Amino acid sequence: MLLRRLLATRQDDAQLSPEIRAALVESLFAPLSSLAVGAIACGIIGAAVAIKANDPAILATSIAIFAVGLLRVVSAVIYKRRKLADDVAATQIWERIYEYGAWGFSALLGLLCYITLTHTTDATLHLAVATTAAGYAAAISGRNAGRPIIAVGQLTLTTLPLAISLLIYPDWLHKALGFVILMFIYGMVDITLSIRDIIIQALTMTRKEAALAARYEEQANRFDIALNNMSHGLCMFDDQDRLKVWNARFIELLNLFDAPIKVGTTIRDLVRYSIRAGNHSGRGVRSIVYELTRGLRQDHHGQVFVSVDGERIMALSRRMMADGGSVVILEDVTERKAAQERIAYLARYDDLTGLPNRNHFRERINEMLEIVREGGNQIALHLIDIDRFKQVNDTLGHPIGDKLLKEVSRRLGSVVRTGDMIARFGGDEFVILQSTPSRRQDSGRLARRLVKALSVPFDVEGHRIDIGASIGIAVAPQDGIDADELIKNADMALYAAKGNGGGEHRFFAAEMEERAQARRALELDLRDALSRNEIEVFYQPLIDLKTGEITTCEALLRWHHPERGYISPAEFVPIAEETGLIISIGEWVLQRACQDAAKWPAGTKVAVNLSPVQFRDRSLGARVVSALAKSGLPAQCLDLEITERVLLEESESTLYTMEQLKVLGVRISLDDFGTGYSSLNYLRKYPFNKIKIDRSFIADLGRDQDAPSIVRAVAGLGNSLNMIVVAEGIETEEQLRQVKEEGCHEGQGYLFGRAMPFDAIMEKLQASPAQRANLVAVA
User: Fold this and answer.
1) Side-chain half-sphere of 767: how many Cα atoms within 13 Å?
2) Are residues 355 and 331 in the same domain?
3) Residue 178 resides in a domain
4) Alpha helices, DSSP H, located in 379-439
5) N or C terminus of the chain with fewer C-beta within 10 Å?
6) Is residue 775 one of the residues assigned to a domain?
């Protein structure tokens, strides 16, 4: 259909008078500024895309676009100076010049789109060329509609390559956009031909009639387009409140599609039509008209919010006109109001549990502390941390963890009194603001009820979940009358409660702050301990229980503080783990241990302990490779020891890291076996070479009749899995005899030697075989 219309235009052109033909050609070159702007704009976009994409093809195309655009501008300038309106031959030549230049420019712009979409994946570049091409195509459809062959050619050469490149792009959204562009081409061709018909009709009228009709039509079309493309509903009333003008959005917002709206319709009629459309449920025409007319008589400069159907919210604003009439603008602000209300809610409440958040808590505690400062009752702040919550997230997933937090919030709400505030600070941290506890015992009783309530197992989607709670309590005014101070003191009390294993509450005490300050000072000293050479590596031997040979030496940290003296690893290692210092300290230990072990007799291994924090470090493998490479120690001589704490945290990533280490040839041991959870499952799942029975079981030999059975069972399990079994903490000859009888392969403990510096362990390793054999007495 469009093709027949396009071909028909060529036949019609042959019958045009020279004057009309000349006028059409003149319209091609005017206005000159649009040609210049088009060339410059397209050249700028092309250059910008070429620079960002750094693609030679795009750059070459961009240069060509600018060059052809410049030639078109130059030709237009020459035409303006030399054209002869009455010279038919000259008119045809200039038309051809414009035609070839326009097609060349359009083809290059289309090529730019195709190259950019096929050579790059940057969505910003795609957006730049697509919008430029679409805007150019839309502009030429109206500008060159008088010569439809030229306009259609430009449109096709510009947008067809864009559509093709979008359709072949792998992303489905690009394909959808390519399909829309094809529809756009079809629509713009139709519009171009329609505009051409209008132009021809206008040109065949008398000059005066054509000019007058064109002026009025253009103004009317612009007004109509602007009015009906507004996102707001608009209507205009005269001084008698009768409708004069309205737009399509006004009809849409009030659902008045079937109403007989016409000029002169009164407000009463509009209300009647609106009620028929389902608006203003349960209200009468008279009351609605009264409210509207009263509102419209007032000169509002703001907005009035109304709901016409009980769901959508409309913003109504009115402006008076000089003749007594008014313009009313109607806007659907339902989503905006909902978003504002949502933002206001989230500013004060937790999205997951619906509890007040930290901001809301701040408002409340500041109000209550003001009363305390004025001599009012005391308040108690309970800071609650959920025990073992991380394990729930790691094993059952975050969705279950979120549902558990909702259940926790509901259970907390069933315990506290009306008037007490429960807030969620984030994660698994809750806070209860207990108002007016008359005695310290009242706060203690509430804390015990909270701990008891959260110790009862939860059932979340069929999963039985056993958690608990640790609570730190600070009371105002005794422990402070400032919100930050109370939170800090409650946090210190919470730390003390968790330090005792969790599942209990602690009140803040002054000595807690002293311990916190001491711990902070220890942390600061620890940060500089490596650079001051205060940390050393000692070694404790592991003995082959059959031969008495030293098979492995375990690297153990020792810190000699210049003022505090010897500091136990049990004291500073947890601080290093919490602060992340264990990463740098652990790397230093690994490097030093490998360097020392490289000097030992061939085949002697070194064991290095890894904390869960180190194991979470994604560069652990690279650090191990670096230590081995720098020292020259064979990988099979490095034994990395981990505890079940590592295995509790992340199963998949942990298994991946361990397999990486195994590929390197490094040996892996499970330390403190039997003190954690699911030990048998870990032995089956993870690639261990060695398991070390925890010293607590060895210490019970001779005292607990079940201890030998446990050691025997672990040794048998290790043998069946081809793992070396090590008995830790051997201190007596009797313990040595029993672990040998129960099938352990290696032993470690004070009986064979305490941890010692490098020189001392080197001396033991260089001892004669007979001397080394004496380390193990023949049982």
Assistant:
1) 16
2) no
3) yes
4) 389-396, 398-415
5) N
6) no
Query: Which residue matches tokens 């030429």?
Result: 140
CB-CB contact of 236 with 327 (8 Å): yes
Question: Which residues span the domain enclosing 565?
Answer: 532-770
192 and 272 together in one domain: no
The pLDDT, as a whole number, for residue 637 is: 95
pLDDT in tens, 212-260: 555 656 665 676 676 667 778 888 888 887 888 888 888 878 777 878 8
Residue 116 is assigned to a structural domain of this protein: yes
CA–CA gap between residue 739 and residue 701 (Å, rounded): 9
CATH number for the domain that contains residue 271:
3.30.450.20
Rg from Cα positions in the chain: 42
| pLDDT (0 to 100) of residue 197 | 65
Peptide bond into 56 cis (omega under 30): no
All residues at 6 or more sequence positions from 306 whose CB lies less than 8 Å from its CB, including other chains: 313, 314, 316
Q: Taking the CA atoms of 82, 83, 84 and 87 in sequence, report the sign of the dihedral they define.
A: positive
Amino acid 96: pLDDT: 77
pTM above 0.85, yes or no: no
What pLDDT shows up at residue 412?
Answer: 93
669 has which bridge partners? 641, 690
Residue 357 belongs to domain with CATH number? 3.30.70.270
**Rounded-to-integer distance, Cα 245 and Cα 321, Å:** 14
131 vs 42, 55, 56, 358, 443, CA distance in Å?
11, 20, 22, 45, 66
Contacts 24+ apart (CB under 8 A), 410-415: 411/453, 411/454, 412/384, 412/450, 412/453, 412/454, 414/453, 415/446, 415/449, 415/450, 415/453
- What are phi and psi for residue 339, nearest 5 degrees? -65, -40
Here the tokens at position 587 are: 């790397």
Residue 198 belongs to some domain of the structure? yes
Rounded to whole angstroms, the Cα distance separating 748 from 477 reads 54
The pLDDT of residue 103 is 79
Question: What tokens appear for 168 in the block?
Answer: 């072949």
Do 574 and 679 reside in the same domain of the chain? yes
- Phi, psi of 128, rounded to the nearest 5 degrees: -60, -50
> pLDDT below 70 — which residues of the chain?
1-34, 82-89, 140-147, 189-190, 192-221, 223-224, 226-228, 278, 280-303, 309-310, 648-652, 675-681, 768-779
Coil, helix or strand at residue 756: strand
Total count of residues recorded for the chain: 779
CB 112 within 8 A of CB 158: no
Cα gap 22→83, rounded to integer Å: 10
- Count of H-run helices and E-run strands, the chain: 31, 21
The whole-angstrom separation of Cα 629 and Cα 269 is: 90
How far apart are alpha carbons 748 and 740 in whole angstroms?
Answer: 12
